[in-house]
Amino acid sequence: MIKIVIAEDQGMLLGALGSILDLEEDMTVIGKAKNGQEAVTLVNQFNPDVCIMDIEMPVKSGLDAAEELKDHPCKIIILTTFARPGYFERARKAEVGGYLLKDSPSEELADSIRVIMKGRRVYAPELVDMVFQNDNPLTDR
Amino acid sequence: IILLPFNTFNRNKREKLESQLKDANQKISQMVVMEERQRIARDLHDTLGQKLSLVGLKSDLAGKLIDANPEAAKREINDISQTSRTALKEVREMVSDMRGTKLKDELIRIEQVLKAAEVEFTIKDETTLEKTPPLVENVLSMCLKEAVTNIVKHSKATTCLVELNESVDELSIRVKDNGTGITGKIDPTKKNGLRGMEERLEFVNGTLEVLSKEGTELFIRVPTVVKQVKQEGMA
Amino acid sequence: IILLPFNTFNRNKREKLESQLKDANQKISQMVVMEERQRIARDLHDTLGQKLSLVGLKSDLAGKLIDANPEAAKREINDISQTSRTALKEVREMVSDMRGTKLKDELIRIEQVLKAAEVEFTIKDETTLEKTPPLVENVLSMCLKEAVTNIVKHSKATTCLVELNESVDELSIRVKDNGTGITGKIDPTKKNGLRGMEERLEFVNGTLEVLSKEGTELFIRVPTVVKQVKQEGMA
Ligand SMILES: Nc1ncnc2c1ncn2[C@@H]1O[C@H](COP(=O)(O)OP(=O)(O)OP(=O)(O)O)[C@@H](O)[C@H]1O
Ligand SMILES: Nc1ncnc2c1ncn2[C@@H]1O[C@H](COP(=O)(O)OP(=O)(O)OP(=O)(O)O)[C@@H](O)[C@H]1O
Ligand SMILES: [Mg+2]
Ligand SMILES: [Mg+2]
Ligand SMILES: [Mg+2]
Predict the structure, then answer these.
(1) What residues contact residue C38 under an 8 Å CB cut-off, 6+ apart?
(2) Secondary structure E strands in C79-215
């Protein structure tokens, strides 16, 4: 059984995500958090296999929480909808197991979780943003 | 003999500058577009991103529940219906914000503003605006808004006349009040209403004339056939 | 005696140009933002507005069908799931696909994508792209992006080779992976990555060849002397 903790500040999303993963036969959701801080606490308390996190949450963001849990054996999966500057780089440096689209079909999400459990990283290409060179013609003169 | 190389030297320099100007323009427009997109993406993230993800998840969930627990499935479907409608409303609001204000909408708005300020309002509008590019309309709406704001804020006027005209090659707006007129110098570092108008009009090759006698009169003109300076990379 | 005025004359001219450069930069950025915003508003309205309405309607329908005809309800729910995800995907593309993505920038990006996916990346790039029109470069960047997205999403490959070549009359890109190859039929109503590539290449008279043996190989070719049929409305 893959033990999962989910952190998401939007209540309906948290509920739906929880129910959908619970329906998978080899997964069980053992904790739900409303922010990154709660997620860190739950992970330390229950030692889940996987912690799925939203990025933008009050108190502590998913990326902050992921950085804090970098040395914890629990695999961190970040879910988000749009690429935002700097996020990909931070997720990569925090060595998260997955950096995935929140809207990926639930089968795909479940499959990704299984692949990540085997030690591979899964990063949605849509979320990888370019590191821009600074060629701002307004500032460099 | 001496003049020529100097001349050439300077010509080269000028040509280099001119080409820099072109390059810079191109880079800027690309950069600005990127920045604007990121800004919009940020706005979209919190509203649409969340809602559409939720709809996706809940539809998967409903599909899985339908046989085992049709009542629970119905609740999910209900949430989907709600969520999609809220999202649609938000998209509409966002889109109408982004589109800028239509001139005809702005006319309605200023009528209300002037009524509230107890300024008698007369309008002569002969325009169809059929061939007016959105950008031009946007700029004109902003000008009109600022002109009327100024009347309410500064003029002490009791009447205001707005006249819109359209000819083959030009669109014009006259805004006239019977107030104090513009008295004293305008400090361009502090005030930016009128300057902003001028700058925006310049984008669309328009002009602003300000007359101050027996009140204030603004005359705004924009050529209908707009020379689009930066066609490329912008379309 | 003669030199001095010339010099001054040219200096003035240069200074004027330099200040023009600054002004132009500022104006353009404002104008570009306005136009870009309006353009995105249009796109948002067209893509999202329609899809969200559809989701709303279908969720009501599914709710009504659930007891009488659960199978039909499932089909509606399936459509909802598809539609919401396509909508979000489109928004994402709209926001991220900056017009005028330089091919060299895209190469940097795909390197990051492949690195993150732990796919070994080899690149052979012999091109200068000096005479490549921006439109062509843009199309090629989009193709490269989709090709690599597909590799990461579908191929299970461990290596990826990208080869760019330039001849007198042609530019070509080969993208090769050592994965599963394309298995099974592609449903063109659901999948639009490869089809989109083909469509975009058509604009610039380019072609796409797909080979599937020992992995997948895409071969993209665009003639360098492009008849620009559809410049407008696409850039
Ligand atoms: N219709 C008017 N009647 C009388 N005075 C006016 C009128 N319009 C402008 N003025 C005068 O011209 C000045 C400059 O106007 P402008 O719109 O540029 O700046 P502002 O309205 O003071 O500040 P801002 O528009 O930046 O909020 C005003 O401060 C006011 O003194
Ligand atoms: N490099 C590849 N290796 C293995 N299979 C591939 C590869 N590229 C494409 N495919 C297969 O071809 C199908 C069609 O690809 P296409 O890009 O058109 O659609 P998609 O990636 O599934 O969806 P979309 O691009 O619209 O998000 C994919 O679903 C996948 O099965
Ligand atoms: Mg959140
Ligand atoms: Mg003002
Ligand atoms: Mg694809």
Answers:
(1) B98, B99, B100, B134, B135, B138
(2) 120-125, 159-166, 170-177, 207-212
Q: Give the three-state DSSP class for C178.
A: coil
Q: What is the CA radius of gyration of chain A?
A: 16
Residues of chain B with pLDDT under 70: 1-9, 24-31, 188-189, 226-235
- Better pLDDT: B84 or C189: B84
**Per-residue model confidence (pLDDT) at position B96:** 78
Residue B180 phi, psi (nearest 5): -70, -15
Angle of CA points B4, B8, B9, to nearest 5°: 115
For residue B166, the distance in angstroms to the closest alpha carbon of chain C comes to 23
Tell me the nearest-neighbour CA distance from A28 into chain B, angstroms.
16
Instruction: Tell me, rounded to whole angstroms, the distance of Cα B28 from its chain centroid.
Output: 19
Q: State whether B50 and A137 contact (CB < 8 Å).
A: no
Residue C207 has pLDDT above 90, yes or no: yes
Interface test with A, best of B55, B60, B84 (most A CBs within 10 A): B60
Cα(A8) to centroid(ligand 3), Å? 6
How far apart are the CA of C55 and the nearest CA of chain B, in angstroms? 6
Closest partner residue to B88 (CB to CB) among C17, C53, C60 is: C53
Residue nearest to atom 25 of ligand 2 (CA): C193
ipTM score of complex: 0.71
Nearest to C25 among A81, A123, A138 (CB): A138
For residue B233, the model assigns a pLDDT of: 37
Flag whether pLDDT at C213 surpasses 50. Answer: yes
- On whether any CB of chain C is under 8 Å from the CB of A134, the answer is no
Q: Which among B28, B52, B76 is the nearest to A138, CB-wise?
A: B28
Summarize pLDDT for A84-140 with one digit per residue, the tens. 778 888 999 999 999 999 998 899 999 999 999 999 999 998 888 765 443 333 333
Mean of the per-residue pLDDT values of chain A: 89
Could you give the strand order of the β-sheet that contains A122-123, starting from the edge strand earlier in sequence? A27-33, A2-7, A50-54, A75-80, A98-101, A122-123
Residues near ligand 2 with C-beta < 6 Å? C 150-151, 153-155, 177, 179-182, 186, 191-195, 216
Band (pLDDT 50/70/90 cuts) for residue C208 is very high
Which pLDDT belongs to residue C228?
A: 44
Phi–psi pair at B165, nearest 5 degrees = -130, 150
Q: Of all helices (H) and strands (E), which one includes residue C199?
A: helix C193-203
Residue B14 is predicted with a pLDDT of 75
Ligand 1 in reach of B152 Cβ (< 6 A): no
pLDDT at C44: 81
User: Hey, whose CA ends up nearest to atom 11 of ligand 2?
Assistant: C182
- Alpha-carbon torsion (B80, B85, B86, B90), positive or negative: positive
Would you call B31 helix, strand, or coil by DSSP?
A: helix
User: Does this model's pTM top 0.80?
Assistant: no
Long-range contacts (CB closer than 8 Å, 24 or more residues apart) made by C69-74 = C70/B66, C70/B67, C70/B70, C73/B66, C73/B73, C74/B63, C74/B66
Mean pLDDT of chain C: 83
Burial string for B13-48 (b: 16+ CB within 10 Å, else e) reads eeeebeeebeebbbbbbbbbbbebbbebbeebbebb
Please, what's the b/e burial string for A70-106 (b: 16 or more CB within 10 A of its CB; e: otherwise)?
Answer: eeeebbbbbbbbbbbeebbebbbebebbbbbbbbbbb
In the structure encoding, which two tokens stand for residue B101, read together?
């204000």
